User: Fold this.
Amino acid sequence: MKKTAVIGTGIAGLATAARLAAKGHKVTCFEANSTYGGKLTAFIKNGYRFDAGPSLFTMPALVDQVFTACQKDARTYFNYRKKEVACHYFFEDGTFIKAYSDPQKLAIELHAKTGISTQKTEAYFKKAANKYNRVGHIFMNKSLHKAKTWFSADVAKALLFLPSYNLFTSMNRVNEKLLDNQKTIQYFNRYATYNGSNPYAVPGLLAMIPHLEHGIGTFLPEGGMQSISDSIYKLCVELGVEFHFNTPVTEIVTDEAKVCGLVANDRAWSFNTVVCNMDVAHAYKKLLPQVKTPKKIEQQERSSSALIFYWGINKQFPELDLHNILFSNNYPEEFNHIFKKQSIYNDPTVYINITSKEIPSDAPPGCENWFVMINVPANKGYFTQEIKIQARQYILAKLSRHFKTDFEKFIILEESLDPNSIESKTSSLHGSLYGTSSNSRMAAFNRHANFTSKIKNLYFCGGSVHPGGGIPLCLNSAKIVSELVK
Ligand code: FAD
Assistant:
């Protein structure tokens, strides 16, 4: 029997472990933390439950696929429901947009609130769907580093529509050209943040992302986001996967450029195959001193990080929904700060996630559990306690302006997560949320492959490698790895 180790039990590590166990591998998972899930965990304090990391759930079919690949019925492990309204958007001048999941309804809402014609928005969605259907699946579902991907009918067909992918212009430029309405442009620019990128730099191809939210939908897992990792962990246990928590791996052992095991808690373990779910940049530096870190990894720009406050709020706000955005008044300047100035803009876009809107038991009666997040630069050294206090003031000032009251009085519980704690808790280089950014045309190709030609039987999954960060892509990396492993 093939003995396989998985280093790290983020969502990609868990999904890889399940898929390989179902294929007959004897899988052992090593996790530095005391529990599984990595960024996808939750915590409860004083009657408030918070999803600690991801809050937006798209492409649930990819979770289901993990169960079907293991010959199990996903519905007996995990369930979810579709949201009619994706998000509530608020602009500083008082404009409110209820972002219906249904693209036609959204087009009507955008027309009513911003004046853009419904035809323009509908045409935009059509283009986004075409991009996704023609080329998205190639980038998302397959290894870009295997010849057979490129010599396929899918790629030949996709090439026929090359000019329509907007590879040589930015998402913002595409949006300006197609939408000619400032608020609608800002609305669609926001999708660059879905993988921690900059709308003013990311290639126009990524203007396909709105199709995921409005063409396929946004969903809410029953029991909150953590139930995604809970259900796959349960599946792993049933399939006989062994877990070692509080067990950081300190070395991947190789012999003649072939994996032969690893070292964890000062003990040597032998394995035929190792799958690494640790951020690949740290993995080279810390676990593979015998191999030179590929230059590309060192040069690639990281995705944005985040500053999150988990607030227990002693009041309910009927105008808010599960997902809410209070837009910055100067979007270009906000991204300039995140990706160029490496500092936090004084009027940040504030995202508020309130799961108690949908799961009342997540907060005490009459209260709400607020997950309040702003995008901030990955931390190459700028982030300090003083910066955090200052950023908290920016958020509170925005909330106080919006609600026309001193907002701080509603906060009765506070926890936080920042670039430093994201890095220390999950080993994500500079605390980036999604591995590397997609801010260049070559980003998808420069992202580390799911294997290395330098060491046989060593594979990589998770947000720092192909196809990138976010739950759907991490799940795809697990699928790609399970297909690559012999
Ligand atoms: P990670 O979650 O990064 O976990 C890696 C695991 O490996 C960790 O448990 C770590 O302890 C372990 N590990 C590392 N090194 C070692 C070692 N040497 N030995 C043993 N174990 C080790 N995505 C979405 O789809 N939607 C969202 O709304 C969204 N919002 C986000 C908000 C926040 C605040 C954050 C932090 C992320 C968000 N993301 C979102 C991104 C998403 O959470 C990640 O892309 C995804 O969860 C990463 O999973 P992963 O498999 O790469 O592993």
Summary: The pocket of flavin-adenine dinucleotide is lined by residues 7-13, 30-33, 38-40, 53-56, 248-249, 277-278, 306, 308, 422, 426-428, 433-434, 462-463, 469-471, 474 (CB under 6 Å). The mean pLDDT is 95. DSSP finds 17 helices and 20 strands in the chain.
